[in-house]
Design a protein that fits this description.
single chain; mainly alpha; 0% strand
Length: 112
């Protein structure tokens, strides 16, 4: 009986792992998800974030872990300076379309 339980457990773990692998491949951005945005435009868009120590890193960490924003008030000031048209050049909004909205809401809550 214990052997059967172990086999069922292993099977469930394998199925779960396979489903995660398939889901992450489907959600991962591919070459077609990136527009042909010149590097100069991306750098110009990143400029406000780059003026604050670790801000670019903190924004991207927040993008990767959306339930744990780790952006300082100073970085939020830089986020407010990024032109709305720049966000799709900085972050692939197709994978997380509400990220910028949630980031700005988080920053607004820091200022409240």
């Amino acid at each position: 009986m214990a052997m059967k339980s172990i086999q069922v457990f292993v099977l469930l773990v394998l199925l779960f792992s396979a489903s995660i692998a398939v889901a992450s491949e489907a959600a991962a951005p591919g070459p077609d998800d990136y527009d042909d945005v010149p590097a100069e435009e991306v750098l110009e868009c990143l400029k406000p974030l780059g003026e604050v120590n670790d801000c670019i890193n903190d924004v991207f960490k927040s993008f990767m872990m959306p339930d744990q924003f780790g952006v300082s008030a100073e970085c939020c000031g830089a986020v407010a300076k990024v032109v709305d048209g720049c966000w799709p050049k900085i972050i692939i909004s197709k994978t997380e379309p509400e990220f910028v909205v949630r980031l700005k809401a988080f920053c607004n809550s820091l200022n409240a």
